[in-house]
TrEMBL record:
Record EC number: 3.6.1.59
Species for this entry: Molossus molossus (Pallas' mastiff bat)
Pfam families named in the record: DcpS
GO biological process, one term: deadenylation-dependent decapping of nuclear-transcribed mRNA
Assembly behavior: Homodimer. Associates with components of the exosome multienzyme ribonuclease complex, such as EXOSC3 and EXOSC4. Interacts with NDOR1.
GO cellular component: nucleus; P-body
Protein name, as recorded: m7GpppX diphosphatase
Signal peptide: none
Any GO molecular function: 5'-(N(7)-methyl 5'-triphosphoguanosine)-[mRNA] diphosphatase activity
Reactions this protein catalyses: a 5'-end (N(7)-methyl 5'-triphosphoguanosine)-ribonucleoside in mRNA + H2O = N(7)-methyl-GMP + a 5'-end diphospho-ribonucleoside in mRNA + 2 H(+)
Alphabetical list of Gene3D superfamilies matching this protein: Scavenger mRNA decapping enzyme, N-terminal domain
Amino acid sequence: MADAAPPPSKRKRELADAGTAACGTEDKEAMVAGVGNGTSAPAHFPFSGFRVKKVLRESARDKILFLHGKVNEASGDGEDAIVILEKTPFQVEQVAQLLMGSPELQLQFSNDIYSTYHMFPPRQLSGCWFSLTVW
């Protein structure tokens, strides 16, 4: 007897996943953003209404954080949401540009051998802060 075909919604998702797996990271980001030409479009997501219920996974090594929470609770439509926060890899060109400029530094520790700072790069280079140790 022939195998039954999978439900249409499941099959459609499998095809979409297969197509996404074949793409590069930039293509995946474009698909998520809904823009096909590689440019990013502003996205609206109500983080102001996001409430964290649980930290699902946290990895300092992988620089990733998985959160389970609720969105739109104020409107009464409270929906579960999973938010994944991930630090993007460094780009050599941006790091060189950052270190040649004058980033905002906050001294954390200093002795006769080295100093450690928290560095807050300009917004156009990164939305995250970095730890910087100077030997």
